[in-house]
Specification:
There is one protein chain. By secondary structure, the protein is mainly α. The longest helix has 40 residues. The chain is elongated, with a radius of gyration of 39 Å. It starts with a helix and ends with a helix. About 14% of the residues have low confidence.
Length: 270
Amino acid sequence: MNGLRSLCRLLPLLLVLAGSFAPAVSARNAPPTVAPAPAAVPATKTDPFRLNIGLEGTGRPGDVSVAVQIVIVMTLLSVAPSIVLLMTSFTRIVIVLGFVRTALGTPSAPSNQIIVGLSLFLTFFLMGPVFDRVQKEALNPYLDGKLTSAQALDQASLPLKDFMLKQARTRDLEYFLELGGYGPTAVKDLPMRVVIPAFVISELQTAFQMGFLLFLPFLVIDFLVSSVLMALGMMMMPPTVVALPLKLLLFVLVDGWHLVVKSLVQSFVT
């Protein structure tokens, strides 16, 4: 009975709500009225913005298609660190600086980031003339449309090839020529697959020779410190603890970083 009474009380409220929604529903279901057409305005012809992306090629005679150029560029970007490491002066510089840190006996000072950063800046400094030749002889003519991509690549390899030939040893070049099955070849006709490994081996040999010379004065200090400690009967005192400040003092007094960097730069200039 109580439920029936409540339903009877809610019935008038439901009727009122239904009456209020009825006009809205009828208006929604009513057919739309057609508005009068506005006055015709003379339309001005405007060309829309267009963006065309194609892989048909650049239209230059003898040039490769854009798709092939994109693949070449992505490949170069993926092997760019190897090119910087193996075809420039970076290899010798970073090895020699690592030997300096080891000879001092400070494995974490300077840190790897500082050594690699200094090696990169010295590499950019030493390779500046080579990069200028690449831009002048290969990049600018290619951007001006005077060279195809293949011709620009050949022109860009010539300055790097000249730089590597100046640093490569004759013995290493002859070895890789023999290993590759080449006969007697003129220097200007040497392929890059022979020049690059010969250059890398020569750089490693030169870097280790410079590292040996750097170790000699610090090795003498280690011997002297060990002999003095043994003569004093201080067997329990580690020689490295006493030798480290003496090495740092010697390195600072002779301006060691300046001498090392100067020797590295002169080894490439001369």
